[in-house]
Amino acid sequence: MGLTGGAILYYFVLTRIQALAILVAIFLVFGVLEITRRFSGRWNDYLVDKVFGAIARPSERYRVNSSTFYVMALIIIVLFYRNYRLSLLSWFWPLPIPRPR
Question: Of 47, 53, 71, 99, which is least surrounded by CB within 10 A?
């Protein structure tokens, strides 16, 4: 489905609470992975080399992954922006979105 398909599904189907629940669940998974890899060098090597090796940057081996910050930003957008659907869609959509009148 990809990012654009997920954004369109979110825009037309999910409510604000459902979107927050999904984003918080994803953030919790990312948070657990980030915390546990700090305490175990073997687990960090496995995650960085085997699981996320194709998409991880070399600098992310010992720092917080950029996707964790991305999901955190999406949560902040859904929490604090009134027109959060348009804001989130503009993050995913490469084309300019016309402003509602």
Answer: 99
